[in-house]
Write a structure and sequence with these properties.
mainly alpha, Four Helix Bundle (Hemerythrin (Met), subunit A), two-stranded antiparallel ribbon
């Protein structure tokens, strides 16, 4: 059963339900892992005890900052994953949010949470 049709000029692309479900499953698994990782990192940061030695305090502070930085990156990725799941629900998954063209299957395989085709992503990074 087809999920959606996308007119790409001379041809019509068909992303079938099986392909869409595969992306959805990958994104759901990643979402779950990120949530667990974020919770674990936050627990680690909370449990860090005050160190009596100044060198230990500096090391502990550095480690806590590092954990919080990783947590922030994981939270940003989690937001992108949740957005991709939303695009699957509304039928726009696989369509570039900027130009409206189809995102290549190889790009979606590599970065399934991406909202942009490779051309638009490269343009944003310039």
């Amino acid at each position: 059963m087809p999920f959606r049709y996308k007119d790409t000029g001379n041809s019509i692309h068909l992303m079938d339900t099986r392909q869409m479900q595969r992306f959805r499953t990958r994104l759901d698994v990643l979402q779950h892992r990120l949530r667990l990782s974020i919770e674990h990192q936050l627990q680690s940061a909370r449990q860090a005890e005050a160190e009596p030695d100044q060198v230990d305090q500096a090391t502990s502070g550095y480690e806590r900052a590092s954990v919080l930085q990783r947590t922030n990156k994981d939270q940003q990725l989690l937001q992108m994953v949740q957005s991709a799941i939303g695009r699957i629900r509304d039928g726009s998954f696989g369509q570039c949010s900027s130009c409206g063209n189809e995102i290549g299957e190889a790009r979606l395989e590599a970065v399934p949470w991406t909202p942009y085709c490779i051309e638009c992503q490269e343009a944003f990074e310039r």
